[in-house]
Amino acid sequence: MVIDCHGHYTTVPREAQAFRDGQIEGLLPGAAAQLKATIDISDDRIRESVQPQLAFQAERGTDLTIFSPRAATMGHHTGDAAANVHWAQLCNDLVHRVCALFPKQFVGVCQLPQTVGGSPADWVGELERCVNELAFIGCNLNPDPSGGHWTAPPLTDRAWYPLYEKLVELDVPAMVHVSASCNRNFHATGAHYLNADTTAFMQFLTGDLFRDFPTLRFVIPHGGGAVPYHWGRYRGLAQDMKRPPLVDLIRDNIFFDTCVYHYPGIELLLKVVPVDNILFGSEMVGAVRGIDPETGHYFDDTKRYIDGIPWLSAADKRKIFEFNVRKVYPRIVALIDVAVPPPQMQSANAGNDVVPL
Q: Any catalytic annotation for residue 133?
């Protein structure tokens, strides 16, 4: 089974963004009533909106996508607490409708109602609703709700602990994912996203968060930003700072996806980061939507890169495509219809290069 851990509802019907625009412009004082009216989008519109994702799944050989609201429009740097709760609810409910209509192709991950200067304790309610009522299996966590100005405390700060306590209680992970940038120095997908991935990793390296939360799990997307390319730098920094070796630091708590849009980058990621800490992801349909003129294939067809690595065993590919996702997102297991071996059984297949994908 091939599970894509990183997909966004980037083709959401335009009424959703129209609601948000009106909300931010102050045109919707009755936010709750407007919210209820706005999500009156027909099932046919929902089905039509995800045809691009379904087509790419079929074409590229992906069985299931872990699906969340569009990251760029989470917009935590705009809107007050009440507005962002309603916006998160709308976005999460639309994702849930996609998952209900296509339960074999999509499973939900939620947007949190974060705000600049807001308390993580205030975001727990929406997380609980999405996990317990909508069968979502995780959340996206923005380490910089300010949109590029980095006014929030580091992710290792105790201010985040109320949220982490709930993540551990529910046994769901968080993908570290910023939203749009309102700082003109940082292009959103070309700089801000990758800055955040790299920054989050360094925060984890310097803190003792996992001593307090040994079962807390984070996925750092976009291949971990600059981390794999500078693995030696981070190993050296950890050594100089008397921190644990990187493989020990990340083993049970930090994972990287494969949203890297060229073969050499994927190969580097797989050579540097332990295979047990890598999850297949494509971000489809996301940051880069075009065709690479050098290959004739879409940049974000990351499965092709993994399939094309000759030294990667079938057993390791199975970990990346399926088993590691099951380990990091354990609530997905009950939502998978096809019976497959649990992750721990992969060790029995180690070295078997004919394991079917």
A: no
CA–CA gap between residue 7 and residue 318 (Å, rounded):
19
Q: Among 35-44, 130-139, 238-247, where is mean pLDDT lowest?
A: 35-44
**Cα–Cα nearest to 74, from 151, 161, 165, 9:** 9
What is the structure's pLDDT at 259?
A: 95
Q: Which residue has the higher pLDDT, 29 or 155?
A: 155
**Does the pLDDT value for residue 31 go beyond 60?**
no
> Which is catalytic among the residues 15, 48, 169, 283?
283
Name the CATH topology of 3-349.
Answer: TIM Barrel (3.20.20)
Q: Which segment of 33-42, 141-150, 273-282 scores lowest on mean pLDDT?
A: 33-42
Structure tokens at 28: 């919707």
Three-state SS across the chain?
CCEEEEEEECCCCHHHHHHHHHHHCCCCCCHHHHHHHHCCCCHHHHHHHCHHHHHHHHHHCCCEEEEEECCCCCCCCCCCHHHHHHHHHHHHHHHHHHHHHCCCCEEECEECCCCCCCCHHHHHHHHHHHHHHHCCCCEEECCCCCCCCCCCCCCCCHHHHHHHHHHHHHCCCEEECCCCCCCCCCCHHHHHHHHHHHHHHHHHHHCCHHHHCCCCCEEECHHHCCCHHHHHHHHHHHHHCCCCCHHHHHCCCEEEECCCCCHHHHHHHHHHCCHHHEECCCCCCCCCCCECCCCCCECCCHHHHHHCCCCCCHHHHHHHHHHHHHHHCHHHHHHCCCCCCCHHHHHHHCCCCCCCC
Distance, CA of 261 to CA of 103 (rounded, Å): 28
**pLDDT (mean) for 226-241:** 97
- The dihedral formed by the CA atoms of 194, 199, 205 and 208, expressed in degrees to the nearest 10: -130
Q: What is the pTM of this model?
A: 0.90
**Domain layout of the chain by residue ranges:** 3-349
- The residue with greater pLDDT, 78 or 309, is 309
User: Taking the CA atoms of the chain, what radius of gyration do you get in angstroms?
Assistant: 20
